[in-house]
Amino acid sequence: MAVVTTTETVRTSRGGRPRDPSRDGVIREAILRLLGDVGYGALTMDAVAAEAGVGKATIYRRWRTKQDLVVDTISVMNQSLATPVDTGSLDGDVRAIVHRLVDVINGPVGTAIRSLLPSMQHQPELTEAFRTGPLQAWRDSYDRMWAQAEERGDLTSGVSRSVLAETTTALLVQRWLLTGEPVTHEYADETLESVVLPLLHTRRP
């Protein structure tokens, strides 16, 4: 199941029947499935309503346009990415966060993001929602992980947002977005043992 829950304050309905906030997650999960199936260009409000099992009026109470609907959904694709990681060691933390990315890539969120990339070139609102939503959540998780490693004495300072930090997921993202080869947990372990962890070990105090 897609994880698109959020702690944001529920928006006020624009009139008519009171809005049921419990429907938000159901609708967003329907949007993710449809984005993966048909992409942004073919997505319609009618299709979202049918996939979510709600009336079209329920959709329009929340979002005026398809763009509003998708931008809002992207902006809250963050719970599974933002959950803190702390296994007690740098190697364990990096392994846990990389395997989390594998799960995201192979789930509804990863499929939806990949389907949105062509549209982002012409829809700056989608790009901004992605940058401030899931991408920012991912960066925050990494920043916390590097800070924990420094506090434990597992790592020297200066790794966060560095080229070295980018290597932890670069090969996975290359497969995901460019080559189309499978991104598996086995492949993640291979990149960790062959590339990522040996490089990080050079930055031990």
Give an account of the 3D structure.
This protein is mostly helical and about 200 residues long. The protein has a domain at about 80-200: Tetracycline Repressor, domain 2 (Orthogonal Bundle), CATH 1.10.357.10. Helices cover about 65% and strands about 0% of the residues. The chain is built from ten helices and no strands. Helix 7 (about 110-120) crosses helix 8 (about 125-150). It is elongated. The N and C termini lie far apart (about 40 Å). The model is unreliable at about 1-15 (pLDDT under 50).
Level-1 CATH class name of the domain at 79-201 = Mainly Alpha
Number of helices: 10
In round numbers, the mean pLDDT is 87
What characteristic shape results from the CA principal axes? Answer: elongated
Distance between the termini: 41 Å
What is the N-to-C succession of helices and strands? HHHHHHHHHH
Rg over CA atoms, rounded to whole Å, is: 19 Å
- Percent of sequence in beta strands: under 5%
CATH structural architecture of the domain at 79-201: Orthogonal Bundle
Specify the structural class.
mainly alpha
Poorly predicted ranges (pLDDT <50, ≥5 residues)? 1-17
